[in-house]
Design brief:
The protein is built from 3 helices and 13 strands, in the order βββββββαββββββαα. It has 187 residues and is of the alpha+beta class.
């Protein structure tokens, strides 16, 4: 594919939204191809992080109301990478901001990354899990960021049940959960 023309349509703190005109190998032209590009990314094209907190053989998960889908959704803590921040530092910061739990950088285990919607978003999401957590502050309901909620620790079997049966789970949470269970080291 070849980029013919790009128009910046919108920009906020996180994304630049472009409408591209592209030409495919067969010479077919696509106009107004929507592309979201994360403003802050690492050199490895990492734009966000998801963290699976693990405490006393339980998985930490949040539930929040998603206004787009008009229902409660299960999510893991996570967020975007800030300028001049690597994915591990972003994971440490997001975990603290959203849950009040702190972990050391060395205790964040990278369990992979993926492109969440490769036909739309130009960035990868990095998955981490950590076992060593320390509660350092309480997060009030009024302090929850959009897309997060109260962190609740559930059994591994309950987490597996949510992964297997729930349609109320964020796709990145499901992907991180699956990577967690496929991780080849002892959990």
């Amino acid at each position: 594919m070849k980029l013919i023309k790009r128009k910046l349509k919108f920009k906020n703190q996180v994304y630049k939204v472009f409408l591209d005109e592209i030409r495919e190998k067969n010479n077919h032209t696509i106009k107004d191809y929507l592309l979201l590009d994360c403003i802050n990314k690492t050199k490895k094209n990492e734009g966000g992080v998801i963290i699976l907190p693990f405490l006393k053989d339980k998985v930490g998960i949040m539930k929040y109301y998603n206004y787009i889908h008009k229902k409660n959704m299960y999510v893991l803590p996570g967020g975007f990478i800030n300028k001049n921040e690597n994915s591990k530092k972003a994971a440490q910061r997001e975990l603290l901001e959203e849950t009040g739990y702190q972990t050391n950088l060395k205790d964040l285990i990278n369990i992979g990354k993926l492109a969440p919607v490769p036909a739309l978003i130009n960035a990868n999401i990095v998955f981490f899990f950590t076992k060593n957590l320390k509660k350092v502050r309480k997060i009030q309901e009024s302090q929850y960021e959009h897309g997060s909620g109260k962190l609740t620790f559930i059994t591994i079997s309950k987490f597996k049940e949510i992964l297997k049966n729930s349609s109320n789970i964020d796709s990145l949470t499901a992907s991180c959960g699956l990577r967690f269970f496929l991780y080849d080291k002892k959990i």
